[in-house]
């Protein structure tokens, strides 16, 4: 399994109230799977994704990515582990505003070792694949929303991860750009990667082979889209 969550929980304290954002959730995702997580706002979807990606330690339970618990690692080692194994795609893109498309795509390479020339070549190949070759020297402010999201997708793939975590990645995209992005994610899973996508978008849900409903931090009524 590429991703295993075992009885993970996360509780936030709001004034005098404990909010169980994720409550005893277990989930396994294998290579080749495209899994969507849906649920109402506040149901725990984003918290679950952050825990899965090594960005938010669960209060209880275990997380394994590629057979290793990232929370067993020291912070610097955990950041390196994420950079090597997980690609993130977010609704707000999270591009560095003063860096060009090429520089943003190359940013994850700072956390891993390897040939600088080979890494740059891979970045240029991804930029070409996502139709951004004529925009590679532009900063994000000069890009459309679709171009920013394609830049974020190229950045997520730079270190050739096997797992992509996507949080509402179509939320700021028009219909055509959303369909294009979902096609990229489906291709990634079809090529042997794994995708865990948090979404309110029915089109994204329809692309997934497995759909998980979260309600009040717990899995409710798992659904399969498999034909």
Description:
The chain starts with a strand and ends with a strand. The chain has helices spanning 45-52, 75-85, 101-106, 116-129, 145-157, 175-190, 202-207; strands at 3-14, 17-29, 34-38, 60-65, 86-90, 163-167, 194-198, 210-215, 218-224. The model has no long low-confidence stretch (mean pLDDT 92). With 227 residues, it is an alpha/beta fold. The strands form two sheets. A six-stranded mixed β-sheet has the order 5-6-7-3-8-9, with helices on both faces. The protein has one domain: P-loop containing nucleotide triphosphate hydrolases (Rossmann fold), CATH 3.40.50.300.
Précis, in short:
By secondary structure, the chain is of the alpha/beta class. It is 33% helix and 28% strand.
Please write the string of helix (H) and strand (E) elements: EEEHEHEHHHEHEHEE
CATH top-level class = Alpha Beta
Radius of gyration: 17 Å
CATH topology: Rossmann fold
Number of strands: 9
CATH architecture: 3-Layer(aba) Sandwich
Fold blueprint:
Elements: E1 3-14, E2 17-29, E3 34-38, H1 45-52, E4 60-65, H2 75-85, E5 86-90, H3 101-106, H4 116-129, H5 145-157, E6 163-167, H6 175-190, E7 194-198, H7 202-207, E8 210-215, E9 218-224
Parallel strand pairs: 3-7, 3-8, 5-6, 6-7
Antiparallel strand pairs: 1-2, 1-4, 8-9
Helix pairs in contact: 5-6
């Amino acid at each position: 399994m590429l991703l295993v969550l075992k009885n993970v929980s996360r509780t936030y304290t709001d004034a005098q109230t404990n909010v169980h954002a994720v409550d005893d959730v277990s989930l396994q995702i294998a290579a080749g799977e495209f899994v969507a997580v849906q649920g109402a706002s506040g149901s725990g979807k984003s918290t679950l994704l952050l825990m899965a990606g090594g960005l938010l330690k669960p209060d209880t339970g275990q997380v394994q990515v590629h057979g290793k618990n990232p929370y067993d690692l020291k912070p610097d080692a955990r950041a390196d582990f994420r950079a090597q194994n997980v690609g993130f795609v977010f609704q707000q893109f999270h591009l560095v505003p003063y860096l060009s498309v090429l520089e943003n795509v190359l940013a994850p390479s700072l956390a891993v070792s390897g040939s600088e020339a080979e890494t740059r070549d891979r970045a240029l190949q991804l930029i070409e694949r996502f139709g951004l070759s004529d925009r590679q020297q532009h900063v994000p402010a000069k890009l459309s929303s679709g171009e920013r999201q394609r830049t974020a997708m190229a950045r997520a793939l730079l270190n050739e991860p096997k797992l992509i975590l996507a949080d509402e990645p179509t939320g700021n995209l028009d219909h055509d750009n959303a369909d294009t992005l979902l096609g990229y994610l489906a291709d990634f899973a079809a090529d042997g990667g794994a995708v865990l996508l948090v979404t309110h978008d029915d089109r994204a849900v329809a692309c997934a082979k497995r759909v998980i409903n979260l309600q009040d931090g717990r899995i409710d009524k798992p659904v399969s889209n498999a034909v």
